[in-house]
Design a protein that fits this description.
heterodimer, A: 374 residues, alpha/beta, Aspartate Aminotransferase, domain 2, Aspartate Aminotransferase, domain 1, 2 domains, five-stranded mixed sheet, 13 helices, globular, B: alpha/beta, seven-stranded mixed sheet, disordered C terminus
């Protein structure tokens, strides 16, 4: 029986245990598991290889993303690092040009050393993407929507091209989550999450998740997860599951608030433009004047000026000095991540309270700048 | 309960829940679940609601029952929750005999709360069997012991009290916090209810608040369980797991701290600025022989007396290693000032009467190198003004 996503989410870990009937799954801290005899494993041997609590969150994300196997890691970056183990020297990946700074840093500073190369593509024109594919190309690595410019890529069209050239499609689904987007149903091979964001949802757990489609790929990827060992701890697995149970409720509220905030910003004279794809809880906007940015952030009272996103609290991030500081300035600005750009993770507070905070911060920022200039 | 004839040290690590049946897990899982699915409408399972029973809490309850040699263990959210729940076995019109230098928190529950429910009490010197016998009344239902007592480390003859209690048809409660079953197993001596602040040596790391009660008689166990479930002051599952984790090293921790405590007690008893040292491990301690008879060691807590409150202040301000804090039984040494801490709930007059003077300090010896601790005390005592000759007469 295929259940709807709200039901799947609310029931994560329930009925997972037959001995006590526990409704909320236990946290197994055990690092080792006794075997009844030689060759008689319960399925668990050593915590890095498998842990009953981690397994539940891995099964849950596989189910939600319609993949064959899920994997939990100690961070989103640990998940991406492990994915890179699927490749070898000489391979090339075509990746989103407007890429999360941490992923950019990992590719350029670490993997280039091992002979991997990366082409950057905005994935808005599949025909252009196809032209980039050559003998060395092994995968498309897509963030959609992108961070922070909120551009959506057409996963189905990109998958069609990838299949033709027999290369993998990897999608970072952190921003939309399976509530709004299921890339594997569109033909993607691998889905990645920084589960620290919407999946965990409470700004209290660092985690990464990966889902693979296909038995062979799943088995190969498991070998890498176990060998590299950047796995998620039992307690964080439990916290992540706890957060996921309310994902659909939170996402609904995030999206509703983001829609209202986007409309407010669109109409505000101090705002140059608003980048909101109409889905999810993330948007970006540019102020009319770069010199207002610091005063605006300093005057926020309800919204928190912080890095990260996807939590119940509203966060505003300044990509130029935070998420994208590792991307060279000229490349950053050429990509549109200019010094006026702010990224907004709209929380689940009352939308009017968020808008009132923005209104007063806009007012105060201009006063502050005037004083400084006089 | 397991029938293995293992030593205590081994039992700390090998108990009923050493291996999880379904996964083989060697560390007890933490069941946060507040409710439990019933697989069969006709026959409900062992667990239904977390207050009534939880697999993680039960692992701790079974472990302490086995370690104390009891039939049932019960875990509470604090030592006082365990003690308060045990006192609920009493009814209006009942009377309790209580050791006079009882822990201040227990003193408060007995004098402020039990009295409001019509439960009477008398404080006695529990080391004086004659006095105890003469205070027993027809309505005396519980004799409440702490041995060694807090903070004067007075040793009660447990079997002597048990015999008196049995002859007068009353129950005995014993707070075993200071020694733990590693050193003293009161149920084997006939005590009915053993109580613990598991916050102390049992958990041992100053990171969890917990209480335990253990009984041998199954019928009494059922009565106490019903009160635990009804009153509901149960231990949370993460805390139950932390106590279980602490128990695994109880033997090594307590043996190490005890060995250090004896050396520190010897050092202090020879120091000219220390008026008195209270530690059952010292041969001149009045309870030394009884302690040797009924327990496997003197424990890791000692008290000592300086001239006055000013001397205490100087010492406290100059020691560097022990934390100056309430509580005891931790990996780090803890220096406490009973007059203002554990016994602050006791009126000054009552305190003085019990010998808990303004010059008294209690030391719970931790796992630091004993030479470092002695050096630290030596240096701090150096700063304490010399005691006037006239006051230094040892009587």
């Amino acid at each position: 029986m295929s259940k709807r996503i709200e039901t799947k989410l609310a029931q994560i870990g329930n009925r997972s245990e037959k001995v006590t009937g526990t409704v909320n799954p236990p946290v197994y801290f055990s690092t080792a598991y006794r075997h009844a005899g030689i060759g008689e494993s319960t399925g668990f041997d050593y915590i890095r290889t498998g842990n009953p609590t981690r397994l539940l969150v891995e099964q849950a994300i596989a189910d939600l993303e319609h993949g064959d196997r899920g994997f939990a890691f100690s961070s989103g970056m640990a998940a991406i690092q492990t994915i890179m183990a699927l490749f070898q020297s000489g391979d090339e990946l075509i990746v989103s040009s407007d890429l999360y700074g941490g992923t950019y840093r990992l590719f350029e500073r670490e993997w280039r050393k091992y002979g991997l190369s990366f082409q950057y593509d905005d994935f808005t024109n599949p025909a252009e993407t196809e032209k980039r594919i050559n003998d060395k190309t092994k995968a498309l690595f897509i963030e959609t929507p992108t961070n922070p410019l909120m551009q959506e890529a057409d996963i189905k069209e990109l998958v069609a091209i990838a299949k033709k050239h027999e290369i993998l499609v990897i999608v970072d689904n952190t921003f939309y989550t399976p509530v709004l987007q299921t890339p594997i149903l569109d033909g993607a091979d691998i889905v990645i999450h920084s589960a620290t964001k919407y999946l965990g949802g409470h700004n209290d757990v660092l985690a990464g998740l990966v889902v693979t489609k296909g038995q062979e790929l799943s088995e190969e990827f498991f070998q890498h997860q176990n060998a590299i060992g950047a796995v998620l701890s039992p307690f964080d697995s439990w916290l992540l599951m706890r957060g996921m149970k309310t994902l659909s409720l939170r996402m609904r509220q995030h999206q509703q608030n983001a829609g209202q905030v986007a409309q407010f910003l669109e109409e505000h004279p101090d705002v140059l433009d608003v980048l909101y794809p109409g889905k999810g809880g993330m948007l970006s906007f540019r102020l009319q004047d770069e010199t207002w940015v610091n005063a605006f952030l300093k005057n926020l009272k309800t919204i928190t000026f912080a890095e990260s996103l996807g939590g119940i609290e509203s966060f505003i991030t300044y990509p130029a000095t935070q998420t994208h500081m590792d991307i060279p300035e000229d490349i950053r600005i050429a990509n549109g991540v200019c010094n006026r750009l702010l990224r907004f993770s709209v929380g689940v507070e009352h939308a009017e309270d968020i808008i009132e905070d923005l209104t007063q911060a806009f007012k105060a920022m201009k006063g502050a700048v005037t004083v400084e200039q006089s | 309960m397991s029938n293995h004839d293992w030593s205590f040290q081994t039992k700390l690590l090998h108990n009923e829940s050493k291996v999880d049946r379904s996964t083989g897990s060697v560390s007890v899982p933490i069941h946060h679940s507040s409710t439990f699915h019933q697989f069969n409408i006709d026959e409900f399972g062992k667990y239904d609601y977390a207050r009534s029973g939880n697999p993680t809490r039960e692992a701790l309850e079974q472990a302490i029952a086995e370690l104390e040699g009891g039939s049932r263990g019960l875990a509470f959210s604090s030592g006082m929750a365990a003690i308060s729940t045990a006192f609920l076995l009493l009814s209006q019109g009942d009377h309790v005999l209580v050791t006079e230098d009882v822990y201040g928190g227990t003193f408060r529950i007995i004098t402020d709360v039990l009295t409001r429910f019509g439960i009477e009490h008398t404080f006695v010197d529990m080391t004086d069997l004659h006095q105890v016998a003469s205070e027993i009344r027809p309505n005396t239902k519980v004799i409440y012991m702490e041995t060694p007592s807090n903070p004067l480390l007075k040793v009660t003859d447990i079997q002597g009290i048990v015999n008196l209690a049995k002859a007068n048809d009353c129950l005995t409660f014993l707070d075993n916090t200071f020694l733990t079953p590693e050193l003293q197993r009161p149920l084997e001596l006939g005590v009915d209810v053993v109580l613990h602040s598991a916050t102390k040596f049992l958990a041992g790391h100053s990171d969890v608040l917990a209480g335990l009660a253990v009984v041998k008689d199954p019928e009494l166990g059922d009565r106490l369980y019903k009160l635990q479930n009804a009153f509901g002051a149960v231990l949370g599952v993460q805390d139950a797991w932390l106590v279980l984790r602490g128990l695994k090293t109880l033997h090594v921790r307590l043996q190490q701290s005890q060995a250090s405590a004896l050396k520190i007690a010897e050092f202090l008893s020879e120091h000219p600025k220390v008026e008195e040292v209270y530690y059952p491990g010292l041969s001149f301690h009045p309870g030394h022989d009884t302690q040797r008879y009924q327990a496997d060691g003197p424990g890791a807590v000692l008290s000592f007396k300086l001239a006055d409150g000013d001397a205490v202040r100087t010492l406290v301000e100059n020691v560097q290693l022990p934390v100056f804090a309430v509580s005891l039984g931790a990996v780090e040494s803890i220096l406490s000032y009973p007059a203002k801490m554990s016994h602050a709930a006791m009126p000054p007059a009552e305190r003085e009467k019990r010998g808990i003077s303004d010059g008294l300090l209690r030391l719970s010896v931790g796992l630091e190198k004993v030479e470092d601790l002695i050096k630290d005390f030596d240096a701090a005592l150096e700063k304490v003004p010399a005691v006037k000759k006239s006051e230094n007469v040892n009587v």
